[in-house]
Amino acid sequence: MTNLWSIWSLSLVTFACFGRGCSSHCPVLECWFLQEKKQGGASGSQEKILLDVGTEGHHRAASRHAAPDSSIRTIYSVEDPAATLCHRSLRPPSGSTNKPLCEISSFLPQPSSVKWAASLTESALSPIHLQADWLAGTLQGVGGELSVSSVLRAATGTSELDVVLSVTTTTVAVKARLSEPVLLDCQFWADPASPQSGFAVEWRYQYRGSGQLILAYDGKADRLSDTLEEGAMMDIAELHRNGNASLILQKAKVSHSGTYICMVYRPHLLAQVTMELEIAEPPSLSIYPTSLPLTVAGQSLTVHCEASGFAPYALELSWELKNPDGTTRPLGPGRLTGHRQAWDGTYSQDTRLELDTSTLDLGRGGEVTCVGQHSGGTRRASVTLRIIGFSTPSIEDSMAMVGVALVLYGLIKFVSWTFIPSGSSEAAESNKKEK
Ligand SMILES: *[C@@H]1O[C@H](CO)[C@@H](O)[C@H](O)[C@H]1NC(C)=O
Questions:
Q1: How far apart, in whole angstroms, are the C-alpha atoms of residue 347 and residue 376?
Q2: Pocket lining: 238 vs ligand 1, CB cutoff 6 Å
Q3: In testing the pocket of ligand 1, which one of 246, 262, 273 has its CB within 8 Å of the most ligand atoms?
Q4: CATH class of the domain comprising 2-117+131-278
């Protein structure tokens, strides 16, 4: 077990060095050092510090950075063999306003009370290794790409820190569709040079204030707790080989939405990262009737749209009309029903729209569309509406009418010229008078 442990730790270090070019790409991180409340009630304070990160032993002597900001009085030099703190999202291009977040606070090593980590501190000896300054660091990469939590150790009174335990996730916020498999990433690295060995992993779930254990694994005893969430698993071989403690949910359910915490225990030490999972399933829309009868102006029709199988709850249903000329006009939300929830936690909601040509300006009709806007995506369903004897004539119709009127006028004129010659009647009348 111990052998396996050192082998994978070593291979991680090698990978880190070849893959990322060792210290050359490690950042100088600006962090807030959060001082705990002094006893007696004074509130905690915070101070800006620098972490000069490197992966190699000679790094400390080689590089000395001057603080760019005179308010920074402390620069820690950090040795991070696994290069966890050298991730690209923690070193954005210089001049970027988007900076990674970093918080450091002091850490108190202590034996863990949870069952699956109890075997790590079975010997009652308090190791000499623990007599040092211990710090905990929490870092968030830019763009929500990465979250890291580390435990760091410095020989008492010095500013030379060693990363002893790091837990990382690259799935800080995950959105998944219903019934899909979901991978919640959690990788850890523990210092193979540490005098103590063994680890335990615990996954917890939190939603609206209540927490729950999902699974726990005692790495020293190689014992997995009963899986409390059906279909939740870890790849134990990957866990031992690569420190890959990722949680797999085989089939996403609506009830899986919430906060997940990956906790990694080492003897007396603990680091954890949190991530958010949102199961976002867009609605399926159906429109009734599926085809509309030819409608006469003045007549009224009702169309019905049913949105089903969506989660979360928030959905915006609306109607629109696409005229034959391609322009689209909103017709409002229609008459909405309340939400109904199905056995699988998904919701459904309906809307009805009264297509009344006397109150709505529908022109000659067009494509009537029901639109469902949802965090999982926008969905549409359409039906064609054709109106004859429309109340407002189009430009072409008006032109045609003018044309017809002109032709008629011409015809009447023509007829009157041909059959009633002008002047003849007047002449006839005067003739009569003369007689
Ligand atoms: C971690 O293990 C899971 C399950 O085997 C795998 O799908 C995933 O790709 C692994 N992650 C990494 C970074 O290797």
A1: 13
A2: yes
A3: 246
A4: mainly beta
